[in-house]
Amino acid sequence: MTLTRTFDSHADRMDRMYRYQRHIYDLTRKYYLFGRDTMIRELGVPVGGTVLEVGCGTGRNLALIAKRFPGARLFGLDISAEMLSSAQAKLASLGECGAHTDLPVLRVADATDFSPEQFDASGFDRIVISYALSMIPDWEKAIDAAIAALNPGGSLHIADFGQQERLPRFAGNTLKAWLRRFHVTPRPLLRQALQQRADATGATLEFRALGRGYAWLAIYQQAH
Domains along the chain? Predict the structure, then answer.
């Protein structure tokens, strides 16, 4: 996919931010992107099923999904070409070590405007969005694009910052101030937005907080 980009576009901001950060991203995010591994363990990917990660970054999550569900076909998109260059390098090793015969298909794409056809797919059984909605300005449009790309009976799995609702106020305010420096905005209306869409389509929603509200996990299950 060819993106129309201006200097001030979201894509350019992400590329500028991650041009150098991508080399240390996984190391520095290891301890505070809480709940990602829980989300992956609960994916329940069927044998031969398709998994797309929206905002796949360095490919860290896709590598873990490949090892946990070796029969799955994997796909990833990110708006940052810089991050995808790291993902390609990381995921190439899956073939070298024999962990996965088919390497993930990666595309530079906008989370708010993509389709399965860009990956030569008709839809996805699982879609993962891990700590990306808090960085996407039009985050509800990204949710809509993901839901539209699900196969019947497929599920959307989201891990992201919560509202720190049970943390001391000072700790929560300090975290949010720090996140703003990196263009990260936790979405207080995430549960409401997902529930509205579930009610409208007959889907089911599982939503829970981890770490006293530090992180939120959601599973949106599409109707068959």
Answer: 10-221 (3.40.50.150)
